[in-house]
Hints:
The complex is a heterodimer.
Chain A (H helix, E strand, L loop, with lengths): L2 E3 L4 E5 L4 E3 L2 E3 L5 E7 L5 E7 L5 E3 L5 E5 L4 E6 L8 E9 L2 E7 L3 E6 L1
Parallel strand pairs in A: 2-12
Antiparallel strand pairs in A: 1-4, 3-9, 5-6, 5-10, 7-8, 8-9, 10-11, 10-12
Chain B lengths: L3 E4 L2 E4 L5 E7 L5 E8 L3 E8 L6 E2 L7 E4 L5 E5 L8 E9 L2 E7 L3 E5 L1
Parallel strand pairs in B: 2-11
Antiparallel strand pairs in B: 1-3, 3-8, 4-5, 4-9, 5-6, 7-8, 9-10, 9-11
Amino acid sequence: AQSVTQPDIHITVSEGASLELRCNYSYGATPYLFWYVQSPGQGLQLLLKYFSGDTLVQGIKGFEAEFKRSQSSFNLRKPSVHWSDAAEYFCAVGARGNTDKLIFGTGTRLQVFP
Amino acid sequence: NAGVTQTPKFQVLKTGQSMTLQCAQDMNHNSMYWYRQDPGMGLRLIYYSASEGTTDKGEVPNGYNVSRLNKREFSLRLESAAPSQTSVYFCASRGGSFQETQYFGPGTRLLVL
């Protein structure tokens, strides 16, 4: 079955610390991969996406993610977290060429301490 | 551009009441989607419309109906609301220059008593 796993429900980091949010997927073929961020009371905003090519992709707000085919992972990273990064982060996968049916992970809530 | 807009922002219903959630996009996108978001479950697709005039079921369609009114608008109707439909509902659209990316509205928070 197709699925996305975000093993960390809640992560707390200090401002300025580095961050890595984990995402693993189970899919028949290499899918398109997305990371979205949701601030409290807001909709989802696209952070970055991977379709093909360089496996390290850069996104907005200083985030990056690395696609590792051998590990079926697409982990999100940021070298130095800011208090404004506190939000919920969702990993999602979709079929190559047709992302009508995105599969979302259950999300990781990030808390940032000053 | 407003992007994807949703109305209302918040609604309280009694069990058995009906209501329609409205969604509109001004990005000339072909595809539109309705999701529900529940704690610990991420987002689940209710219905989608790949193009004007077509609609298809997603993962959790029971208890809902949709209408793709025109290219811009995609509505979600609850005919007889149940407490299990208490959720946050998101509309999204896809198309244009970044064909594979879905863009989301701000959400409608629905409470069914």
